[in-house]
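Record now logged underneath.
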Amino acid sequence: MDIFGGTPRVLGYPRPVVAKCGTDATLRCQIDGDPHPDVIWERKNVQIFSEGRYKISEEGKAHMLVITRVTQQDAGQYICKARNSIGETYAAATLKVEGEVQPQEEGQRQLDVNDVKQSVKENGECEGHLNGYCTVQNDYRKENAEEMNAEKWNSKFNEKQEEVHLTSDDKPQFLIKPLSLRVDRGEDATFSCKIWGTPLPQVTWEKDGKKLNDIFESSHFSTSIQDGGWFQLKIYRTRMPDKGVYTCKAINCYGEALAGAILLIEPTPEQEAKIMSPNGLANRQWSPKHRGGRLRLPIVTEEPPVNVSKVKKFGVTEGKHAKFRCFVTGKPKPEIIWKKDGIPLDPGRRHLIFEDREGYYTLKVLYCKVQDTGLYVCAASNTLGNTLSAVHLSVKGPAVQFRRPLKDIEVKEWDVAVLECDVPDESVPAAWYLEDQRLMPSSKYGMEQKGTRRRLTIQDVGIDDDGVYLCEMPDGAKSIAELSVKGEIVRKLPRKLEVLEGENAAFCVEVEHDDIDVHWFKDGLELHETHHTILKSFGKTHILVFVNVAHQDSGVVTFVAGRSKTSSRLKVKATRHCPPICPVGVEMDVDRPNSILLTWIPAPNSQTSTRSIFVLERQQVGSQEWQKCFTSETATSAEVTGDSVPCEGDYRFRVCCINKYGRSGHVEFPKAVHLVPGPKICHRLQDCEVMEGEDACFSIELSATMVGTWFLNSTQLQHSGRYSIEQTQTRHSLIIHETCRTEDTAEVTFIANGVRDSAVLKVQPTLVKFNPMSETDRYKKVHTGDVIVLYCEVSHLFAKVSWFKDGKELQVTEGINIQSEGNMRRIVIQSADASHSGVYTCETSGDVTKFTVDVAGPPVDFSPVPEEELHKRSMELDPVVLVCHVSRDDAEVVWYKDGCEIQPNNNITLQAEGTMRRLIIRSAETSDAGNYTCQAGNNSMEFTVSVKESPVMIVEPKDDIVMERYISEEIHLQCELSRSSGKVLWFKDGEEVEESDNIQLTSEGPYRKLTILCGSIENSGEYVCETDGDSIFFQLTIKDPPVRIISPTESELKITQLASERLELSCEISQSDAPVCWYRDGLKVEEGPNLILEVDGAQRRLVIPMTTEDNTGGYVCDTEDDSVTFLVTITEPPVTLNRSKSTPAKLEIFTDKPIVLETEVSRPNAEVKWWLNSREMVESRNITIRKDGLIRRLTIHSPTPADSGKYTCDAIDDKIDFQVKVSEPPVTILRKSEIKTNPKCLISDDLVLECELSRASAVTSWYKDGYRVDGNERFCKEEEGTFRSLVILSAELGDSGEYFLDAGDDNISFQVTVEEPPVTIVGNSPDPEYQEMVAGDDLILACDVSRASAPVQWYCNDRLLTNDCRTNIESYGTLRKIIISNVQPSDSGKYVCDAVGDKMISVVRIQVPRVVEFLTELHNTTVLEGEDATFKCVVSPEDVHLVWLMDSEVITLGDRFQATQNGLCHTLVINKCQMLDCSKITAEAEGKISKASLKVQEAQVMFTKKMEAVIAEEFGDATLETEISLETGEVQWMRQGVVIQPGPRHTLAQDGCKRSLTIHSLTLSDRGTYRCETLHDRAQVKLNVEPRKISIRKGLTDQETFERETTSFEVELSHTDVEGIWQKGGIRMKPNNQWRMSTNGRIHSLTLSNLTLEDTGTIVFSAEGLRTTARLTVKETPVSILRPLADAHVEEGLPATLECEFSRHNIEVRWLKNGTELKPGKNCRVYSMGRKRFCQILQCSLADSGTYTCDTREISTSCSLEVYEHKLEIVQDLEDLYIQEDQNAVFMCEVSRDDVTGEWYKDGHKIRPTSTIKIRTEGTKHFLLVCNVKAEDAGEVRFVARDIESTAYLEVEELPVSIVKPLRDRTALEKHRVILECTVSSPHYSATWYKGREELVSSERVEILADGCSHKLVIQQVAVEDEGTYSIEVGEHTSQAKLMVETQALVMVRELEDMEVMEPESASFQCELSVAINKPPVWTLNGETLVPGPCVHLETHGPVHKLTLKNTSVDMSGTVKFTMGKAKSSATLSVTAE
């Protein structure tokens, strides 16, 4: 609520005025307020009155001060003050006077304002006298330490900057940004920055987004430009409202730049005392920090008292918010203080104090409590005055109270906080809130209910938990408490901050200690200082500012101090937009037949950038509903016809404007309009479906009788032989006789007077049958070369047939002829060959007949084949080839296996080369065994194939399996065999396993499985799966059941999740109380804000509310015995890293240079981590981690040797290493010879000893006279980069001495001398000061000396002054003052204050006072209203200046106020006194006054003229007039006791003493008696309203016209607004398309258009009993050509329309071309519309050129049509493409026409559509699409159409090859074949095979095959030595596998035997195999493989293998193992010591 709305406010601040000397100057100020404020002007605290050269005037809200003939003395500041009963405000205006001024004596000029004299110095400073004190402006302003440091730093920067070569970029750049400042109130603040740009940019300064001119007076700040691109903003005498964010914007023609800084204002102790004082402003004292020369006394004003009984009242309910707004204006900007019950309020948890965007100062009390009840005051003050406004707040408690409310508590950070309250009843639930956030039970918040007690427990309290907590009952009652968290952060961030785009977002935090390390983060990323981001710390205060925010700056801002942190959500909102403004200037055009034209004008100041729509709505009179009837974006008019309304009636209309921000108000059109709907369709046309040759009937019924026209496919139909057209009243019908197939799907259209309807004619073909044929005609057997004739007979003469062979349609070619004669259909093949054999069919739409043709050729014979070739024997997987030879090359053969035809597939290939026919089985299987037959005609050849199986081996598992399972669990034991048909036996503990109820043995392909359905302890044991050549062992142990995860049933789930979505992982366990642990990537997870662990019975959930890429990983829900893994992937492509060219892998650098490491990532949003020696690096002041597009950069600005090591950039998916070595150079002091080592300074000055080191990290120590200097409040040791400084604040004499800086490797000494400064008078001027005083006053002279102990002496006219009875000399600190009481003229002269080294001179002149007295006082006067009042007084002396005042305001003399003087007598005459003139009249004569009262008695207002009765006519106007005795008298008009108020029908007016009432649009009910009353008299008059008498002034006249013409009838009546009725033939006429009726005043019109012969008749007009008639005669008109045909010139392929117009519409015409009648067809349309006749050629050709004639038999018109050939052009050429393999290539060529057929070519070969090549055309665009492009698709692509062509090139980049299917380990039997196979992604890459490191090449046994993407290595007759590791290398990829070769029946014949030897004896082991294998065995000792050497000797003798160990030792004791394939043996070696 705006509780201070009536306070005076400045609408327009006065602008500075510059006037020429001698001209007039006008100062203007706009002020508003309610009640109307009183406004005065002041200068130097002296009010200015409207007299002499000053004129004060007021125009509405504008208040002006005019100064005539200005001089230099008038220059300065003027104050405009406004005050009313609610508050007051101020505004300052500056006047500057230009021009030459003659110098006056001693440089002094006098300024006379209302006889109060003040002296003005030459420099413009003003001195005023108040209580004898002299106030002087202070020109000396303190420069703060930060500014001094900034200037030093800037100077050093400039020296370096001169050496830097500026870039060619001319855009403005900030070389040095402005520095943030903190100053005391009253000090000056200076911002400096250095900007580069060409041309030199224009610079503007803003504060908090506002221009300084709008918020500061011009004297409060100044901007300047200095050489070298320096720009400066200086703010004088800072005030508290000056604090904020200042931005500097630099703009030139190449762009702009922005930088910001913060200004903090610290209140002085006096300011704080002022705020805490009861009156707020009365205790303002002189600040000791103010270093002015002479004392300026403050303006002492008291805060006005508050009348509590008159303040506004405001009430809220407890728990609600209260908001107070106060609008205060003034320059300087006022300081605002909010108080409650006289105590100032500070911002806090529940008190928000801010200035909103509308300029209102706002106090918001959040969650009000009852104790918040009180008086709230907004006090505003500036240097010119103060004001206040107040409101009383009442907080009401809830109806139902808490038994015990919450209490405020305070806890330490990380402690537990407990809030408790008692509700009225145990059953009452309660909800907990943290401010506006509902709290839910969690690990953070514990909520308890015990009886009526409600408790909230907050665990691990953090700074963000500090706030207001509420406990709310269901009825809305709340209990409120504040939780105060004491931690490192004293002042936390707000929970959220909302700003508009373009504004500044500021965050401020205060901490407990000022030496703590702090960081700012946004959305998890640490912030650093930029032009856009300001980071500043002032002791314990830390500030973050985002300058000129944009929408993307929204996010979470976090401040971290040590372990403490506080967060805030920043929301940047788009600038507000307003809904559109309603249109204006609505108008109606009703002079239209059955229609209306509505127009409007868009609002002049409506938004043009936002898309808006005008919406027109209608409402039928009597209805409440508005319906939309028209919308448009641009149109400002709309025609509404009768056809658009649903029924006849009167309609109103309104219009509005809509955009995306809302809807404007509606603007209603002034009148209602009568509209009649047009004809309607009662029964619509229906689609008609008939058989070919039948009749088709169409009918339609309308709502009225009218003539209609029928069209068939846009061709107008006439009543003729095939078409029968009839009309019966409202029913129209059309019959089309003997329909044909060409009319199928034709459109039948009916059009009549705006009504249109269509239907579709569907013609079904008649059923065609074939006549029966004999079998001999159906079966044809011919020889090669004979003629084949197939024929059949159809039942319908015109039936169409299609011929097919083997399902494919036949077309007429060279050898095939298709004939049709009558009912006969025939196909003739001239020369038969074998390809013509087959089944032929002849098909119609309803029947089909078949023919079989057999073309016989010569027999085919087989050549003899050797017997061994007919019987093939092969091993499994070997190829099988069957070959035979036939007698003819073209002979076709068919292969059969066991009687079934063989089709080629992946394993079987059929080949034919000449007479050879071959069948190849690539890899034989046992199923391929059988009898094969090659059939050629009647001859055949048989082959027998037998395939031998290889022994069955167990492929998986390769090693024995140890298993542990649980009771009642289903257990599976599985083996994979090398062959699906292999048989196995299962054994348990040596006994064969048989199937039972609990044990199942299953076989699925190569897999053999043993399943135990319900495991038990008895099922434990050793299981063996055994084939005829292999076996595998399973050791099974069954234990008690564990805790299982019931759901999900899978042990591993893959979850793909989109970033930022909620992720929920859920498990259900078998025991609800079992513990569960969650792990992520092997680490146990911990709960946090973005990771929640939930327990719900047996359910265990992990919830991540907002997922990011960092959440990708493996999540494991782990019980004691079970677990389930969730593989979570947050979908984004893997990140790859590339090393930057500028950063080598190895880097050596010194500590004085930064380390910069760069990598390039594959994705802009990729996150990387930097590691140093496996330790993660984080950002700090020395370490910067930056993102720059795809570049990730790590910068260590000041490296140290400790920064050496291995740096890793880790992007999870990829990483790059850098080896960095940092070495440190020795520390030296730079430019040692340039440093001044003998500094001198004065006492109390600040002294800085400074030098620059070669290294920023160097450790230094300061010493004075041999003693170490420690930092304290006076000695500050500073380190800034490489600079080391010792700052001595307020130097003393004892600070002199030798200062020594020790930098380890170097040092420097300073000899410091501190001297006492000479005594000076601060702010002294060389010119003397002049003062004029009146005898009897006290003279006070004061000055400030530079030192408190300095002595001074006072002299008057060179006479030493001492203390006596009249002279008092005082000394306070640096203040020296002399007071001389009761001065006399003898005291005039020169006064000197002598301070030895300085003097202050003042010249004083004492004058005797002038005596002014009233000889005769004023007397009280009483007059009647309207009479004159005279006041007289006698004043001595005669030349006295006397001023007349009324109620303390100066009277402005004029017509009513006249003042005269006759000697000593002064007279004031007030003419025609009014009641408002009652006042106090004062005569003021140079300080003397005389007062008297003026009382004005009210005069009686009487009627002086009697009113006569008034007679008026209905619907007219009547004026009642009377006259009263007093011009200012007030009257009121009444009728039947009701006061008449002004309105649309009643107008009240006054003219002098006359008063009148005018009644408009009289009705009969208005007649009666009207009374006019004053307070003292009354008069009445009678009004008689008579019905109006209407007559016809001008009647109807007969009219005669022709058909199709328009005629009008007019009637003029004697009155307006008369409703009339038009009739024709006795029937009332209503508006429609033909009849239009309108009324314009007294004129009534009827317009009839499109007349017909039937319109002849009598027209009658009647109105209120009157009647007039006329005769209308319509004659038929002869046919004439209104518009002849026009010659046409048309491009080929485009349509041409020939159009002519006749005088009548119902005429028959015919069209001729070159004299021959045209018939309508597919390309030619002939139709008519009204009187117009059209001939349209849809697609012109050259043959269509000629002379066209439209003939009516009576008259004709002709024209010529010329068709010219179109020149085809290419609009858009093909473009070259460069794409990767497997992508799609799209070529597009656009030509100038859309009916062109084009062809595509590649490398000269025509391209035809395939499954991967698509060709399509869309209008003029032709497309070629090549899908899944391969490398061979590259080449030239050409598009050809007619004589034009376009060419482009397709380049295909091959994809890098990858291995799709890797090699697999294989085990092969000796002397068998083995195949290693690998599949790659591209067939274009070659592969290299290796065994170990040896490259393989094809040989007799080794075959290397490549088939497309498949690569195979085939080894025939594999031997034991072929065992090893094989690999294939394709591109950069490698795949490898192991090949194991099993010998046949390899077993141990003799096992190893245990050995026991003494050390160092040798130990020998020997064993024997069943087969000698040429492959070394594997010997191991205690698991370590033995290699031949000095102590290990290996021997092999056939199947015998021997191991000898020499020099044995005790530690060699253990197990010796021998392994050769699956043959294994072991023994124990025992070595004993000697």
Observations:
- Residues 145-161 form the longest helix (17 residues).
- Residues 1187 and 1193 are 6 Å apart (CA to CA).
- The two ends are 108 Å apart (CA to CA).
- Helices lie at 145-161, 212-215, 269-276, 775-778, 867-870.
